[in-house]
Design a protein that fits this description.
Number of strands: 5
Distance between the termini: 22 Å
Helix content: 40-55%
Structural class: alpha/beta
Strand order of the largest sheet: 2-1-3-4-5
CATH topology: Rossmann fold
Shape: globular
Length: 142
């Protein structure tokens, strides 16, 4: 299956850990693209010919944070079908509830141990990239 993952994460060290966890799960670096904030994420989405298979997003970013980016993505007919996975340090019940109310598909709190991150990425890969029936890329409205 052809897939691409857009990762919105402002912390350089977290981006490296995510990349390492993806690679540990056989997800090649070539299928991932990074944005450092919500503004950059929206620019990348608008300029892509094909939408990503899924978006992996932190909530706490500068400029446009993840909460605002989720609202922008899920209110735009071009992007609202893209699965959004929140991956953040916040375990706040308010953040979890508001994220799901805005239309995110999954919410994960960042683990503190790398082995737990690798396991979490394994779950994401198995479910979202191998098992779930996703909308074909050519379906998206342009």
């Amino acid at each position: 299956m052809n897939y691409s993952i857009l990762i919105a994460e402002d912390d350089f060290d977290d981006r490296l850990l995510i990349q390492d966890a993806f690679e540990a799960n056989g997800i090649e670096a070539g299928v991932t693209e990074y944005a450092e904030n919500g503004d950059e994420l929206m620019t990348i989405l608008s300029n892509r010919e094909e939408p990503p298979t899924l978006i992996f997003m932190d909530l706490n970013m500068p400029k446009m944070d993840g909460r605002e980016a989720i609202k922008a993505i899920k209110s735009d007919p071009q992007f609202k079908q893209i699965p959004v996975i929140v991956f953040t340090t916040s375990a706040s019940e308010d953040d979890i509830q508001s994220s799901y109310l805005q239309g995110v598909n999954t919410y994960f709190t960042k683990p503190t141990m790398f082995k737990d991150l690798v396991e979490m990425v394994s779950v994401i890969k198995t479910y979202w990239l191998e098992k779930a029936a996703l909308t074909p890329l050519n379906f998206y409205i342009r």
